[in-house]
């Protein structure tokens, strides 16, 4: 299969449904000349390659990058003005495939200097989560919306369901799932939004630890007393609660928390998570560190 290249360089956002989405400019020529400086010389942007929060999945419609605030982001030939506080949340123009390369770079708005490029690879967003236990009566997971999801146990069809809305699915297996079985799902579109079949990784059925909870939210970056944003990875569209407020993960499982004020070094915080099916996950406790 011919691989597509998605070139990403950074953008100013508008808010759509509570998600800051980059506002595209059609070409470099369309950028206001006053946005790009011509000072020349060294610019810190040159040593700041884009940092991807979480992953870009083949089921993602959003991507979030972190970098300097004085930058522009180009996505697949489109330029995006800077977001606030160096957070660049963009809506992907189309679905990507597993293995596609995402080439990223910043352009400084003060000097016009370019950063080094950083290449990311698209990974599978078709998953079974949490881990399947022997004899499971329900199997859950995430994939692209508007799809037919077929459950396979040791290569044999064991049930199917539709994924709608957020791409979540729920299958009641037609057979007993034995210990050490190999479980996966096969996914096909029902609305021509993509033309090929998606496959999840193959999962081995194991006995869960008694009383253990499935994996909860994970920090993307260390939180300091100067942080204005906190990023977590979670399951797609999970609800993460921090400081008494609820935050929803996007299609790639990224949770972006904007802080109204900076936090004191040494403060201990706990983030809790409930997935899109109402399952409680393992809480995450972390401590704010000093930036000095």
Structural features, described:
This protein is mostly beta strands and 292 residues long. 0% of the residues lie in helices and 39% in strands. It contains no helices and 27 strands. The chain has strands at residues 5-8, 13-16, 19-22, 24-25, 51-52, 62-66, 71-75, 78-80, 87-91, 101-104, 106-108, 118-121, 127-128, 139-142, 147-153, 156-163, 168-171, 182-189, 198-199, 203-204, 218-219, 229-233, 239-242, 245-248, 254-258, 268-274, 284-287. The strands form 8 sheets. Strands 15, 16, 18, 19 and 20 form a 5-stranded antiparallel β-sheet that branches. Strands 4-8-7-11 form a 4-stranded antiparallel β-sheet, with no helix packed on it. Strands 24-23-26-27 form a 4-stranded antiparallel β-sheet, with no helix packed on it. The radius of gyration is 21 Å and the shape is globular. Residues 1-5 and 7-36 have low confidence and may be disordered.
Descriptive key words:
single chain; 292 residues; mainly beta; five-stranded antiparallel sheet; four-stranded antiparallel sheet; 0% helix; globular; disordered N terminus
**What pattern of helices and strands is seen along the backbone?**
EEEEEEEEEEEEEEEEEEEEEEEEEEE
Radius of gyration: 21 Å
Distance between the termini: 49 Å
Mean pLDDT, to the nearest integer, reads 84
Number of helices: 0
Shape assignment: globular
Report the uncertain regions.
1-5, 7-36
How does the helix and strand content classify structurally? mainly beta
- Strand percentage lies at 35-45%
How many individual β-strands? 27
């Amino acid at each position: 299969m011919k691989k597509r290249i998605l070139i990403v360089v950074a953008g100013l956002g508008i808010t759509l449904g509570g998600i800051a989405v980059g506002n595209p400019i059609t070409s470099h020529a369309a950028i206001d000349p006053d946005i790009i400086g011509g000072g020349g010389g060294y610019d810190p942007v040159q040593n700041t390659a884009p940092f991807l929060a979480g992953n870009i999945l083949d089921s993602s419609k959003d991507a979030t990058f972190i970098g300097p605030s004085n930058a522009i982001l180009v996505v697949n030939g489109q330029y995006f003005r800077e977001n606030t506080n160096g957070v660049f949340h963009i809506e992907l123009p189309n679905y990507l495939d597993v293995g596609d390369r995402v080439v990223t770079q910043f352009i400084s708005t003060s000097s016009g200097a370019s950063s080094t490029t950083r290449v990311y690879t698209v990974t599978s967003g078709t998953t079974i989560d949490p881990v399947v236990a022997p004899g499971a009566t329900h199997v859950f997971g995430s994939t692209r919306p508007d799809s037919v999801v077929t459950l396979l146990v040791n290569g044999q069809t064991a049930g199917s369901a539709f994924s709608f809305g957020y791409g979540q699915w729920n299958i009641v297996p037609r057979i007993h799932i034995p210990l050490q079985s190999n479980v996966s799902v096969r996914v096909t579109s029902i609305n021509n939004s993509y033309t090929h079949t998606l496959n999840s990784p193959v999962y081995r059925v194991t006995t869960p630890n008694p009383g253990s909870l499935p994996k909860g939210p994970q920090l993307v970056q260390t939180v300091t007393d100067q942080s204005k944003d906190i990023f977590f990875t979670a399951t797609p569209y999970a609800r993460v609660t921090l400081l008494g407020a609820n935050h929803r993960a996007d299609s790639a499982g990224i949770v972006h928390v904007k802080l109204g004020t900076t936090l004191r070094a040494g403060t201990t915080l706990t983030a809790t998570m409930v997935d899109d099916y109402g399952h409680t996950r393992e809480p995450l406790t972390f401590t704010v560190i000093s930036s000095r």
